[in-house]
Design brief:
Number of domains: 2
Distance between the termini: 39 Å
CATH class of the largest domain: Mainly Beta
Strand content: over 45%
Structural class: mainly beta
Largest sheet: 22 strands, antiparallel, barrel
CATH architecture of the largest domain: Beta Barrel
Number of strands: 49
Number of helices: 7
CATH superfamily of the largest domain: TonB-dependent receptor, beta-barrel domain
Radius of gyration: 27 Å
Length: 763
């Protein structure tokens, strides 16, 4: 075929993006298949079919046209095995690529996929922080700006399921919540679901955040290292033999050896209103010599036993540690004691995958996840020592079957076994008191799911059911899941999602100064009780199994570089307790069981200007109400996480190797309860959550510049400013009375203006 083309070859990934825009199509492929592939860009005069022929000649890849919009990319080896299937490769129809920015993709099952390796830039972020990035998605926000308190459609953070290579994680943040605990440079993809989740996911009634590491051996060495004003990190992907590979990464804070403006702001934000700062209010006692640091270590070993048999070992250790000295002078004698807090999550697992044929595969996994939160708090003035411990042991085994005879039909089913043990210790020396409670729960789950994709790729239907059995309670819960997507009039897509889910683990707050007031929440296990029980001088508080119901309807319009999206949803969660909600008003010490109901709509308009710029406006309206039969006369009242209005306006711009991002975040004030007066030290309050804090406003900026150091290495310099306007946002407020019955207001402020810079090198 005679042809006139641009002679200079480009990375295939760049060519595909240009062709997607030129022909209004979408490519679906495994990242490993297009790595290090280059092609010339076909002339605009060529038809789509002619362009695909050119790409095939240039890359030796197979391009399969599905309908008139979607093209699956396969290796020739895979194509020769079967004309209609992928084997282990999964076809995921991409309906919106470069969602907000590059590296973020919306799939036709309602989920969002984030690929840190191809991630562009977002306001305030100079590195692809996983849990900060997902907060740019409509319907996801953190009321207190932390990654350890992410609210997905009005839920609490403990209602999210966090998976790291299939292992459940109970700790999500460094610096006690300001930084994600998961290294983005060894994370290949992150799948985020707000509704209509896969049947294989359990124990997370709000959102699912599924992080996956690279799972293929390509025989190529890859490494990188970098630092910013908080931490330094390094990672490497090392081929050991033809069929083995080792992936390693580590990160450590520099905060205990280098004090930076970023650290100062982080320290003020996270330790305000904690024992570390409050003790200095006592004239007889001061805190000094604080020592804080964090680190994480991750590794994954890949072994391809044969072409059909694969073995994977993974390991992760996350640690936060705080020590400080409290000094006091009592009776002319100087006293000094050391208080400390440590938080860590250890995880490890083994996964075996067998490809029985081109269309049938099985996966088996065993794993252990251990979370430990320990605190020793000394009060020198009152000669008191308090020890608190919270430990979670989660061990599980999973077996999964995938059957995919062609690109239009798939069956996924499996069995899962979990054993979760959670213990809580409290030990006081003056007066002498000790309490140790441990609960263990074993559960079994089976699930089945069927996915159908029409030949023209316009219709996608997925239906599955998960059945959970809790032998301790002799309880069976059936949880159907639904995802339906229909394209019409070429540029419109109608979407329906629904699910029933349950959860047996949750976090509670007994006292606001627990664990030095820094990490107040402790994990507990459901006992499925509905009333308080008292046995052996112990009070057993009711913790039901959490149950949720959710349904949503969405409409999306996508043409060329314009996306307009709207999604309305209804979500009901039953079995919440007052202790899990962190009340700081008249219900702080009440014990009650209730529910919350949230109704809302998420709206997004995203306009892209080629590969140069992207702007978006997202707005969410929601009404989130509690109902506790024993509180507020059984009448509904606003949820602590009821943010009625949320708005984000952002833009990114790329100029050659320089990227810029600027964004504004605004939301209505968090509900609060104002005091009326104080009687005998007891504060009388108005109706619960009947007032609101001032509106929240924050402007962020970030920029990066990438350049080549050599033919095999590339460097990136970044700078960002969080809260450019230095707005003093109040993220929480509560009241307390002193010995004279005077009411004092305590306000927790957001991060002030926070600069950061980074430097990275990739090989």
């Amino acid at each position: 075929m005679a042809q006139t083309v641009q002679e200079e070859k480009q990375p295939l990934s760049s060519v595909l993006k240009l062709l997607e825009k030129r022909y209004s199509i979408s490519f679906s492929y495994a990242d490993a298949n297009i790595q290090d592939k280059y092609s010339i860009l076909p002339n605009e005069a060529f038809s789509l079919e002619e362009s695909l022929i050119i790409l095939k000649e240039q890359t030796q890849l197979e391009f399969e046209l599905l309908g008139n919009r979607f093209i699956a990319i396969k290796t020739l080896e895979t194509s020769q095995k079967t004309n209609n299937s992928f084997g282990t490769q999964q076809l995921e129809e991409v309906i919106i690529s470069n969602y907000l920015t590059s590296g973020i993709t919306k799939l036709n099952d309602g989920s969002i996929t984030i690929k840190p390796e191809t991630f562009g830039i977002l306001p305030g972020l100079i590195e692809p922080d996983i849990l900060q990035t997902i907060q740019a998605l409509p319907g996801i926000i953190s009321i207190d700006e932390t990654v350890s308190n992410i609210n997905v459609r009005g839920g609490t953070h403990d209602q999210n399921l966090l998976l790291w290579d299939g292992i459940k994680m109970y700790q999500s943040g460094h610096f006690f919540g300001l930084i994600s605990a998961f290294n983005p440079y060894t994370t290949q993809s992150v799948n985020v679901s707000k509704n209509g989740t896969r049947a294989k996911y359990g124990d997370g009634i709000s959102g699912v955040i599924d992080m996956q590491l690279s799972n293929t051996i390509d025989g190529k060495f890859k490494a990188g290292a970098g630092f910013n004003l908080i931490n330094a990190d390094a990672y490497a992907k090392i081929p050991l033999t033809k069929n083995t590979e080792l992936q390693v990464s580590t990160r450590r804070s520099v905060t205990d050896v280098l004090i930076t403006p970023t650290y100062d702001q982080y320290f003020k934000r996270i330790f305000q209103d904690s024992d570390l700062s409050n003790s200095s209010r006592n004239d007889n006692s001061i805190s000094k010599n604080e020592n804080f640091y964090f680190y994480d270590v991750a590794s994954k070993f890949l072994y391809d036993i044969t072409k059909k048999d694969k073995l994977r070992f993974n390991f992760l250790y996350v640690n936060n540690s705080l020590n400080y000295e409290e000094q006091s002078t009592i009776n002319d004698r100087s006293e000094a004691l050391n208080s400390n807090l440590s938080q860590q999550n250890l995880a490890g697992g083994v996964t075996y995958t067998r490809d029985w044929s081109d269309y049938l595969s099985t996966t088996a996994q065993v794993y252990v996840s251990n979370y430990d939160l320990d605190a020793t708090n000394y009060d020198v003035v009152y000669e008191q020592r308090l020890i608190q411990e919270n430990e979670v042991y989660d061990g599980g085994a999973k077996f999964e079957i995938n059957y995919k005879p062609n690109t239009n039909f798939q069956i996924n089913s499996g069995y899962q076994f979990f054993e979760v043990g959670i213990s809580n210790l409290e030990d006081v020396n003056n007066p002498v008191f000790r309490s140790y409670i441990k609960e263990v729960l074993r559960s079994h789950a089976v699930y089945g799911e069927t996915s159908l994709l029409s030949y023209d790729a316009k219709t996608r239907f997925t239906f599955g059911t998960r059945v959970n059995y809790f032998n301790k309670f002799n309880t069976i819960l059936v949880e159907p899941r639904l995802s339906f997507s229909q394209r019409f009039l070429n540029n419109f897509r109608f979407e329906v999602l629904g699910e029933l889910k349950s959860q047996t683990t949750s976090q509670i707050i007994d006292l606001q100064d627990d664990f030095l007031g820094v990490e107040k929440r402790r994990w507990v296990l459901a006992n499925n009780k509905t009333e308080i029980e008292r046995t052996n001088n112990q009070t057993i508080q009711p913790i039901p199994i959490l149950k949720s119901k959710q349904g949503s309807v969405g409409l999306h319009y996508k043409k060329n570089d314009l996306l307009i999206s709207a999604e309305g949803y209804l979500k009901k969660v039953d079995g919440i307790t007052t202790r899990s909600q962190g009340f700081q008003n008249q219900y702080q010490y009440e014990i009650a069981i209730g529910s919350y109901l949230i109704k809302g709509i998420d709206f997004l308009i995203n306009k892209q200007f080629g590969n140069k710029a992207s702007t978006w406006l997202s707005y969410s309206y929601s009404k989130n109400d509690y109902t506790f039969n024993d509180l507020n006369n059984g009448e509904p009242f606003p949820n602590n996480a009821d943010l009625r209005h949320t708005l984000a306006l952002s833009g990114t711009y790329t100029l050659s190797d320089i990227k810029f991002a600027l964004g504004l975040n605004w939301h209505s004030g968090k509900p609060t309860t104002l005091p009326i007066n104080s009687t005998d030290g007891t504060i009388n309050y108005e109706a619960p959550n009947s007032s609101n804090l001032s509106d929240y406003l924050r402007v962020d900026f970030s920029t990066t510049y990438a350049f080549n150091i050599s033919e095999t290495s590339r460097a990136t310099i970044g700078a960002s400013v969080w809260n450019v306007l230095n707005k003093k946002n109040i993220i929480n407020a509560y009241y307390k009375s002193d010995n004279n019955d005077n009411i004092t207001k305590v306000e927790n402020l957001s991060l002030g203006i926070t600069p950061n810079v980074s430097f990275r090198v990739a090989f």
